[in-house]
Amino acid sequence: MTKEIYLTGDRPTGKLHIGHYVGSLKNRVVMQNSGDYDPFVMIADTQAFTDNARDPKKIRDSLTEVALDYLAVGLDPKKTTIFVQSQIKGLFELTSYYMNLVTVARLQRNPTVKAEIQQKSFGESIPAGFFTYPVSQAADITIFRAKKVPVGDDQEPMIEQTRELVRSFNNAYHTDILVEPEGVFPEKGLGRIPGIDGDAKMSKSLGNAIYLSDDADTVAAKVKQMYTDPKHVAVDDPGHVEGNVVFTYLDIFDPDTKQVADLKAQYTHGGLGDMKLKKYLIEVLESELKPIRERRMAFAQDIPAILQMLKDGSDHANKIAEATMKEVRQAIGVNYF
Ligand code: ATP
Ligand code: MG
Question: Is-annotated flag, keyword Protein biosynthesis (predicted)?
């Protein structure tokens, strides 16, 4: 029996951070190693262009960085097809057809795109490609007929839009070749981890991230800057745990839940200083990040091998995509000759 395909990916707009790690990468590795799926992981460079069109160097540089992050956390090209979006030409074609099956009004309702437009301060100059990126994302998922899409919480509206497009396409062309995907979302609290500044989402584009590639000193410096409780001034003052990023991260990264509960009690009561607490978080993060960082440095010794891996993955992905596109063209009736 053929295994279910899962597809997911990341935009090459920077290196990957610990939000990606707990919200998505960790689960991809588990799914990969379960042997139950045929995994596809895409570096979404075409999508990165929708808001970085004038900075191709950033995208080009980030391509290898993201690939290194993947290998460092344990994605294995022998088990997971790791490929580059722009190399799959069928995606541009499928996106064009989808564009006619969705209305401007529907796109305007997408809450994630709305929030991102605000965040990126486009003002009146929203690139049309950015506004319509959920459509191209629907093409990414459906060209591989992926059943499962493991993503962070911000991607929920994209999956819904994809499901609608599949129904519209199958309905318009009297076919059933396209498959409605299902999102696979992280456990509560992991789908959108906050930035070190306390902002609602750690993001490559917001400058509030701890990267998988950060060295130990950089991680320590970032934890020291971290947003805690502004009212907790003296060590003996009672402090707040809710909204305190240090505790949010301890909840996520420290396997010793009893220890975290004790620290919370002490902090709330008064008598636990921010510095001491932060030193503890630094240790907790280091034990998770050190092995990842070391593997990353080893892979970074051979960049041509990384590019070859991406080429091989893209060649394989293209074969699958082309098979779908053949059926798509037939269903629409543009196989004229
Ligand atoms: P950008 O700011 O360029 O959009 P990003 O940090 O949002 O970058 P993406 O490449 O857009 O990263 O997202 C890749 C995947 O990681 C998506 O599934 C997304 O939901 C997930 N993700 C991104 N940020 C976080 C976060 N802070 N916590 C959990 N998951 C996240
Ligand atoms: Mg994003």
Answer: yes
